Amino acid sequence: MPEPTPGPAPYRPTDRTVPTRSADRASYDRELVHGILDETYLCHLGFIRDGAPVVLPTLYARVGERLYVHGSTGSRPLRMAGDAKDPGLAVCLTVTHVDGLVLARSAFHHSINYRSVVVHGTAHQVTDPDEKRAALDAVVDHVVPGRSLDSRPGNTKELAATAVLRLDLAEVSAKVRTGGPNDEPEDVSLPHWTGVVPVVRGYGTPVPADDLDPAVGLPDYLSVL
Amino acid sequence: MPEPTPGPAPYRPTDRTVPTRSADRASYDRELVHGILDETYLCHLGFIRDGAPVVLPTLYARVGERLYVHGSTGSRPLRMAGDAKDPGLAVCLTVTHVDGLVLARSAFHHSINYRSVVVHGTAHQVTDPDEKRAALDAVVDHVVPGRSLDSRPGNTKELAATAVLRLDLAEVSAKVRTGGPNDEPEDVSLPHWTGVVPVVRGYGTPVPADDLDPAVGLPDYLSVL
Fold it and tell me: How much helix, strand and coil, in percent to the nearest 5, is found in chain B?
């Protein structure tokens, strides 16, 4: 029988991607990391400003082993990052999915099921116009797959007013908790309900803009969201 | 007619809570901030470790004008914060709700509707046993209202193994985007669907633990989630 095809090599653990606790929940598996990153479009980007930490929510997309973070040229992290000639901006980019509420019989063992990815690295502004345009398309398509082809592309002025940060996927880890509660053996007979409440995400019915021509129907890529 | 009752005073803006862009989306309204914080239980906590930013997802609860962040005594931010005698840990705590995908006719004007709160401040470990116990109950009840009374309270050993950070709500801002796309007038006749796709969150059917006594029914506080 042929050997199973090996998956891509995992990310290499570093001092700051090996957790001090719950190390059994950590993973460096590339496909797991990509899957967590591709399932949503909002990250929390951390950086240092005037010696203090700042965490801002922002849109992003993954293209291969790069993340692109979208922003305005006026936004502080983007201005601080400079372009590829500059030293860049030290960042930590974190993406988290909550999958379930874990209700144990004891307060102490309550938990949540989650999947998170933490990326450490140095971000730079994307200055190459082609890369920038492709990155912005990727961000739009990361939010709504297929949408970039069904919208008016950015013009020169709009591209100039938009900034994109690039962050390579090198120092990366995932952390995952799954499964039910882990109660102490002596608590099993307690009369409290115990189990997992799944957390679900989804989309409601699209609401057309007031000025939408009624002849324009809902595109297929929205009906399958 | 009586004057309307004034709401609580807003948070005082500071250099770092006044955004450099989209300032019209910023708010310091206390009730708005509390509402955003109370609607979920997961925040992203940023701090500085070895000169670099770190952003970790973690559970929290609000009690009045204080946030409590839950962790293990082994976790790095909690150890770094020290207790009330120590200088504490500079943090930025951010909470974000995504409410809708905003699809404009132009790629440039794509956006998301969201509500976020950013809290800057210094976190300390809670060492008073009563405050710690109340904070942990608050975290459990923040995730599932009513649950702390229907679980076995933490014992001395469990309380010792759990750490709680306290962060006062002082330097706080909210940012909110609502409404439809803001297309350019010259784009209105383009043939692209435009509007908002609502993002919805909810819960699935609770899954009992394998060892749950079938005589223990689903509590009311879960059936109303």
Answer: 25, 40, 40
Residues of A in Cβ contact (< 8 Å) with B93: 55
Min Cα separation B39/chain A (Å): 14
ipTM of the complex: 0.93
Which structure tokens are listed for A62?
Answer: 């993954």
Helix (H, G, I), strand (E, B) or coil at A196: strand
Give A75's pLDDT tier (boundaries 50, 70, 90): low
Report the alpha-carbon distance of residue B75 to residue A198 in Å, rounded: 26
**Token pair listed for B113:** 């509707």
The predicted-structure confidence for A125-137, as pLDDT tens digits, reads as follows 999 999 999 999 9
Query: Does residue B120 belong to the interface with chain A, where contact is any CB pair within 8 Å?
Result: yes
Give percent helix, percent strand, percent coil of chain A, each to the nearest 5: 25, 40, 40
Determine the Cα–Cα distance for residues A94 and A57; give it in Å rounded to an integer. 10
How many angstroms separate the CA atoms of B26 and B176, rounded? Answer: 7
Q: Which helix (H) or strand (E) holds A206?
A: none
**Domains of chain A and CATH, by start:** 23-180+218-222 (2.30.110.10)
Which phi-psi region, left, alpha or beta, contains residue A128 (left: φ > 0; alpha: ψ -120 to 50)? beta
Contact A46 B59 (CB under 8 A): no
In tens, the pLDDT along B27-63 reads 999 999 999 999 999 999 999 999 999 999 999 999 9
Distance CA A146, CA A140 (A): 8
| CA-wise closest residue to B40 among A72, A180, A201, A184 | A201
pLDDT digits (tens, 9 = 90+) for A174-224: 999 999 999 999 999 999 999 999 999 999 999 999 999 999 999 999 988
At residue A33, the 3 state secondary structure works out as: helix
Contact B44 A48 (CB under 8 A): no
Tokens representing residue B30 in the block = 């206390």
Q: With residue A104 as reference, give the H or E element that holds it.
A: none
**Quick one: tokens of B177?**
């985007």
The closest alpha carbon to B43, from B53, B57, B26, belongs to B57
> Under 8 Å CB-to-CB from B219, ≥6 apart: which residues?
A193, B146, B150
